[in-house]
Amino acid sequence: MRAVRVSALSADLLGVALDDVPKPKRLPGQLLVRMRATSLNYPDLLMTRGEYQLKPPLPFVPGIEVAGDVIEADAASGFAPGDRVMCGTRLAAFAEIVACDASAARLIPPRLDYATAASIGVAYLTAYVALVRLGALATDDWVLVHGATGGVGLAAVDLAQALGARVIATSRSSEKLQVVADTYAPAVTMPAPGFRDAVRDLTGGGADIVVDPVGGDVFDESTRCIAFGGRLMVVGFVSGRIATLPTNMALIKGFSVIGVRAGEYARRSPRLGTENLDAIWAMAGEGRLRPRVHAIYPLAEWRDAFAAMAAATHVGKIVLVP
Fold it and tell me: Are β-strands 142-145 and 166-171 bridged in parallel, bridged antiparallel, or unpaired?
């Protein structure tokens, strides 16, 4: 079968190629899935550079979520050949056939196509853990979402609104923010950086929850416009700079800084991880979530897809198909 394989780490993808590799062997408790769509996430790009916390031995096939059709399954798994499923994986989703744990799979609701289903798992699960599990989101909370045009940011905008919050969406790109405004109609959109005073004025004191996949200057400015008792959710550092925080600021303003790793959360709390997955897919099945697929690339054009991810030209998710 064909798979995107990383044989050497580099900043320019020179160690990555579309190769012929052996079909994976299904272990007990796993499904074997024929990939119909798989979406890119920023960790996929970081792993090709060796810059992510998970550093698999070389060579490896990246990709952490796949939508497709079950080929093989244990009789007791609850799945059968032909089922349309979405599976979370730690690796190996950028391939024509993928092995994944049955516990990390869910049936795709009839209303969703493969590309849309492949755009939900990681982004919305991260948003759910940030907002609900760790952020204790309440109806009418003000939620400030940075990087609101990317996968996790856009999922946070969508999910927060579905749960009754008031959303402020930020991005460096006014053109991409207009797409967010037209599609999701958050309370307001504004450029970042440069949002501090506008957020404080709009909210009457500060945002209750800040979802920050950006870091750097955006994190620094967020500490100046978060409410007393607010929760600043650290999701990532796509700006390239990991910010530091004078702890007296957290003390005086009474806010919390919370790291968000949805996958690790599930590994440490399997029961809650299952509940998180169930909640996301129930909302998707009810039509309460509106994932946006920005572009679809054939697997053979993986390099163009990765380039689009690196250039941050997308609004929503970038998807690969066989």
Answer: parallel
